Amino acid sequence: MKKKVYFKEKKIAHRGIHEKYLENTIPAFKEAIKRGYAIELDIQFTKDKQIIVFHDENLKRIYGVNKYISLLNYSDLKNYSIPLLKEVLDLVQGEVTLLIEIKWEKRMKQLIKNLLTLLKDYPGEVYFMSFYLLPLYYLRKYHSKYLFGYLLNRYLPHYSFLKLMIKLNFFHLDFLVVDLLLLPDPIIIHFRQKKYLLGYTIRCYQEYFQYQEYADCFIWDSYDG
Question: How many CB atoms lie within 10 A of CB 123?
Answer without folding.
Answer: 9
